[in-house]
Amino acid sequence: MHPDEVTTHLLDRARWSASRSSGPGGQHRDKASTRAELTLEAESLDGLAPEVAARLGPGLGLDRRPLRIAIQDERSLARNQELAAQRLAELVAQALAPPPPRRPTRPGRSAREARLAEKTRRGQTKRLRRPPGDLA
């Protein structure tokens, strides 16, 4: 599923609310509710492909708590809602991105020494289990 389709699905199931913005702004800020808040619950993932939902839940943190995106950057509620939708699209793309490839590493010196010491100790234990006179 393409991230844009997933974002559209989530926006259809999101809960929107508006409130007054904080900070300077004078009369407009005091009277108009321009702060946009988008809330997503874990139930919003219902209807998505199971593998997509399995990656989105932990990726967006929906397995622990609802996702809340609050934007009050602009003076217009519609513009703040657009910004919140863009932010959700970024988070969805990030959550659905494949993990970076694993870079193979070599064991450190202490790990190599510990492995060889263990091999020596096991060999000594097995040697001591042999019957006396069996020196092979």
Global morphology: elongated
Q: Tell me, what is the CATH class of the domain at 3-96?
A: Alpha Beta
CATH architecture of the domain at 3-96: 2-Layer Sandwich
What is the straight-line distance between the termini?
65 Å
**Quick one: biggest sheet?**
3 strands, antiparallel
Note the run of SSEs as H and E: HEHEHEHH
| Class derived from helix and strand content | mainly alpha
**Portion in beta strands:** 5-15%
Q: Tell me the number of strands.
A: 3
Radius of gyration: 29 Å
What name does CATH use for the topology of the domain at 3-96? Double Stranded RNA Binding Domain
Which properties best describe this structure?
single chain, 136 residues, mainly alpha, Double Stranded RNA Binding Domain, three-stranded antiparallel β-sheet, 3 strands, 51% helix, elongated
Summarize the structure.
This protein has helices at residues 3-13, 26-31, 50-60, 77-96, 109-129, and strands at residues 15-19, 35-40, 67-71.
Structural description of this entry:
With 136 residues, the chain is mainly α. The chain has a domain at 3-96: Double Stranded RNA Binding Domain (2-Layer Sandwich). The protein is 51% helix and 12% strand. A 3-stranded antiparallel beta sheet has the order 1-2-3, with helices on one face. Helix 1 (3-13) packs across helix 4 (77-96) and helix 3 crosses helix 4 (77-96). It is elongated and about 100 Å long.
